[in-house]
Amino acid sequence: MFCDYVTIHSQEEMAPGIFRMVLDAPEVAREAKPGQFVNLYVNDPTKLLPRPISICEADAEKGLLTLIYAVVGKGTEAFAQYAPGTKLRLMGVLGNGFPLERAAQPEVKEIILVGGGLGIPPMLFLARKLHEMYPEKGIRMFNGFRSTPWIEEEFHPYGEVFNASDDGKSGFQGNVIDAMEYKLIFTDKDTKALLYTCGPIPMMKAIQKWQTGYNMETWFSLEERMGCGFGACAGCPAKLRMPDGSIKKEGVCKMGPVFPGEDVIFE
Ligand code: FES
C-alpha cells in the first residue's frame, strides 16, 4: 500500500467550509476504486492521527486524485490552509469500495446513486466508472443538500441528476426519498434496480426502510462513521448481519466502508 508524501496540485473552496483538493498522486490514482478512501496527515508532528477522506475522482492518466472535504476540526482546518505545492503524507488506497460488477446482472435495468452531503463526492467517481462499464444502463443520481448545491455539473455526463434540499433552493424541497418517489419509474416487475448510497446515517436508514417496497439491491457506504480510518480509534463499529445469520459489531474502516444494505443494522 502507498504511504508517502504527495503534492497538492490545486485547492479551492467550493462553498463555505467545503474544499476540493487535487493531489498529484499517480500510484494512488491508478489503484483507486469508487467507494475507497485515503488517509491524509497534517504537517504537524503533534497530530498523529490522519483524516480519512473518500475519493471523489481518480484520473489514472494524469495521475491526479480529487478529494472533497468539509472543515470540521483542527485537521481539516489545517488542510484548508495548504497552498498548491505543499507536500502531505497520504496512506491509501483503503477500504473495499463499491461492487461495480453487480450492475452486470441482466435484470438490472436501472442504477440509482444516492448521495447526501459529503456522501455526494464519492458518487461522482462511481457514476463515471459505471457509465464507462455499462453505457447501456440508465443511471439516475439523487443528491441531497441542506441548501444551495455545491456540486452538480460534474455529474451530468453520466446520467440524470436530481437534487433535493431542505429549503428547496436546489431541486425538490424535501429529502432524496421524496425526489426518488417522484422520479423513479419502475415499469415492470422483472426490472430490478441497483442502488448505491453514501451519506448521513439517518438518510441511509430511511432508504433501507423505503426500498423494501421495490425490487432493489442496495449497497451502503458507512464512511460517515469513521474516525482515524485505520483501526486505531475504535470509533467506527457498525452492527452487521453475518453470512451465518449472526449479528456482530465490526469496524467500518477495516471491513467496509461498503456493505450490502440488508446486512446493515441501524440502531
Ligand atoms: Fe478508527 Fe475505524 S475509524 S478504528
Descriptive overview:
With 267 residues, the chain is of the alpha/beta class. The protein has two domains: 2-94, Translation factors (Elongation Factor Tu (Ef-tu), domain 3); 100-263, 3-Layer(aba) Sandwich (Rossmann fold), CATH 3.40.50. Helix content is 18%, strand content 38%. It is built from six helices and 16 strands. It has helices at residues 26-31, 74-81, 121-133, 176-183, 201-210, 252-255, and strands spanning 2-15, 18-24, 37-40, 51-59, 64-70, 87-94, 108-116, 138-145, 160-165, 172-173, 192-198, 216-221, 237-241, 247-251, 258-260, 264-265. Strands 10-9-8-7-11-12-15 form a seven-stranded mixed beta sheet, with helices on both faces. The chain has a six-stranded antiparallel β-barrel with strand order 1-2-5-4-3-6. A hairpin with a 4-residue loop joins strand 4 and strand 5 (64-70). It binds FE2/S2 (inorganic) cluster. FE2/S2 (inorganic) cluster binds next to loops.
Order of helices and strands: EEHEEEHEEHEEEHEHEEEHEE
Mean pLDDT: 92
> How much strand?
35-45%
> Portion of residues in helices?
10-25%
Major sheet details? 7 strands, mixed
Overall geometry comes to globular
Strand arrangement across the biggest beta sheet: 10-9-8-7-11-12-15
Query: CATH-wise, what's the superfamily of the largest domain?
Result: Nucleotide-binding domain of ferredoxin-NADP reductase (FNR) module
Bound molecules: FE2/S2 (inorganic) cluster
Give the count of helical stretches: 6
The CATH topology of the largest domain turns out to be Rossmann fold
